């Protein structure tokens, strides 16, 4: 067996894969944040809680109704996205005429409430969610052993991210979204219902978070704090990629996952902070983020 | 509103757009103090006036972009005060803003195709590109990479597709080279022939004179005079005084 800088290849590829998996979640979550921030100008602090809700809802469907993973993958994002629509209509939409800070405070408060409710009900110890039978087991790739479910997560995240990117950058619907992000007043004066677009966009971003939650359920234990832990890193990813940049969120999400994985191989002590170090450096050199538009 | 008795009291009835005692505010600052004017079907009417007179604000108030407004704006018999901008657009009024409003994150083509069709009878994409051939070679460019003149053509062109036959154009010639001003003038005359009704805000009153049927003079948030195009020559001095040129 060859060794790379004294590292056995299994360890290297293993950490790379782990990095890719984490990157899949970073990308999905920061993509949702970026979409929401672009149009609503609000940093959705409830994003982590909504991701957690996704995982819990999948668990509840399975536990209480016997509804399995594949249905959960479809139903949970719709249900949690719908809860986002309600939250936007009833609460967030009342804050648009105020400073952005109020939206941040509101969603932060919502996150605390949602997490508190789940903690009350289910405690903090993780609940198990089994990998669907179709994706159990693994594949020997020759240079490493790939658990099928993990491969699926990376693939699903890539497809959803690229699909979202394509929709926003290349379709008519996306053109409306980009235009409304730039100048909602004028888009409204063309006869387009911008408030409804904003509501649906929030619902979509929240749905992405919930989808990530369902994907995460079989990998990470389902518990009320799972989102709170993850979302801090995701905010750093968003800052590095550039607020509101769609492609930036995707590339930075996967990229930082991989960098984190490599750090775990070559300098394990630094793996917990490497993303924040990069964030600090990016802020110093390019405050708008790597993909942010410098206005 | 007795103290601010408007000087112009046009007859309603035949008007496509009738603006009466229109007041408008930016937050607490009261900018429109009772605007009155009429636009009849097929007319080109200008709003002339100095910087800060309230011309842009008048268009924004008609369009519903200025949300704090009172008075009456009747369009084809229907009251527009109280409606949101999107409903006013759907009623058949199209707006081309002073700053042109070309989207930088959209290509020229996407900018052109953005405003939704609200009714049949608008120009086709090819009609618009026929009127503004400069745009055709630049369709894939980023919208804001166009020159100022091309951006203005795009800003006018895209609202011609919607089927709206009533246009609010805010200073379409501002800052443009004379040859482009002429091209836009020719376009406006073509549009008039095709049955469009146009409210044109202008500071360039030679340009205004070349395209419009009537002129309203706006000062400090009021319409203070009306001059038909035929009377224009006889009133040049008065106009110069109004416009401070
Ligand atoms: N967004 C705003 N907030 C507060 N006041 C404004 C705003 N926009 C314009 N005003 C004020 O309202 C008044 C009328 O402005 P408006 O833009 O309607 O003038 P205008 O006739 O279009 O002038 P110009 O020929 O320079 O475009 C001015 O006193 C201006 O300072
Ligand atoms: Mg103006």
TrEMBL record, chain A:
One protein family per Pfam: BPD_transp_2
Topological relation to the membrane, as annotated: Multi-pass membrane protein
Keyword list, A-Z: Amino-acid transport, Cell membrane, Membrane, Transmembrane, Transmembrane helix, Transport
InterPro entries: ABC_transp_permease, BCAA_transport_permease
Main localization, broad class: membrane
Domain of life: Bacteria
Location of this chain's protein in the cell: Cell membrane
Transmembrane segments: 12-35, 42-62, 68-87, 99-118, 149-168, 200-220, 232-259, 266-285
Sequence similarity: Belongs to the binding-protein-dependent transport system permease family. LivHM subfamily.
Name listed for the protein in its UniProt record: Branched-chain amino acid ABC transporter permease
Biological source species: Flaviflagellibacter deserti
Automatic annotation (TrEMBL), chain B:
Domain ABC transporter stretches: 17-245
Family of this protein: Belongs to the ABC transporter superfamily.
Native source organism of the sequence: Flaviflagellibacter deserti
Keywords: Amino-acid transport, ATP-binding, Nucleotide-binding, Transport
Keyword Cell membrane: no
GO MF entry, a single one: ATP binding
Classification via InterPro entries: AAA+_ATPase (IPR003593), ABC_transporter-like_ATP-bd (IPR003439), ABC_transporter-like_CS (IPR017871), BCAA_Transport_ATP-bd_LivF (IPR052156), P-loop_NTPase (IPR027417)
Highest taxon listed in the record's lineage: Bacteria
Statement: the UniProt record of this protein carries the keyword Membrane: no
Protein name (database record): ABC transporter ATP-binding protein
